[in-house]
């Protein structure tokens, strides 16, 4: 298997520039990623609906709200 350096050396100069730009893009993209810790600040947000829906019904209704852009009033 050829190394990346070997393959890049076989390219014409203008293509090497493209490869360099792409690698820099990938590096900047990877550096920009920061993993955020999950928050649970939403917990209990639908507590007032527990009399109206079972947990499974609430999951289905939440999916409908998301897909229909229909939120409860």
Report what the structure shows:
This protein has 73 residues and is mainly α. The chain has helices spanning 4-9, 13-32, 55-68.
Helix content: 40-55%
What is the general shape? rod-shaped
Evaluate the radius of gyration: 25 Å
Q: In total, how many beta strands?
A: 0
What kind of sheet is the major sheet? Answer: none
Proportion of residues in extended strands? under 5%
Order of helices and strands: HHH
Structural class: mainly alpha
Kindly, what is the distance between the CA atoms of the first and last residues, rounded to a whole number of angstroms? 61 Å
Q: List segments where confidence is low: pLDDT < 50 over at least 5 consecutive residues.
A: none
Instruction: Give the count of helical stretches.
Output: 3
Mean model confidence by pLDDT: 81
Would you kindly provide a brief summary of this structure?
It contains three helices and no strands.
List the helices and strands and how they pair.
Layout: H1 4-9, H2 13-32, H3 55-68
Keywords:
73 residues; mainly alpha; 3 helices
